[in-house]
Design the sequence.
């Protein structure tokens, strides 16, 4: 049986993105989608991995600045369109 991220975990991912200074809902949604897919992929390889451990493992892939690079990239792209 394949593990899936549930609604409570999705809510946790939205809180997690806000805690890491992602303020815009559209960007939060993109990150939640990315994180939930990545967590589900990790569960395919290791179904005993906890949600929080999988989340932290995936978040580390964003590097020392976490989501800040993504936020800055989005802001730069928004300014170019103006």
Sequence:
């Amino acid at each position: 049986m394949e593990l899936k991220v549930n609604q409570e975990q999705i809510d946790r991912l939205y809180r997690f993105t806000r805690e890491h200074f992602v303020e815009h809902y559209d960007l939060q949604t993109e990150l939640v989608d990315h994180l939930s897919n990545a967590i589900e992929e990790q569960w395919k390889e290791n179904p005993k991995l906890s949600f929080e451990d999988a989340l932290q493992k995936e978040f580390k892939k964003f590097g020392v600045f976490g989501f800040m690079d993504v936020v800055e990239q989005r802001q730069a792209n928004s300014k170019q369109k103006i």
Observations:
- The chain is about 70% helix and 0% strand.
- The longest helix spans residues 25-45.
- The two ends are 48 Å apart (CA to CA).
- The helical segments are 7-19, 25-45, 51-60, 68-81.
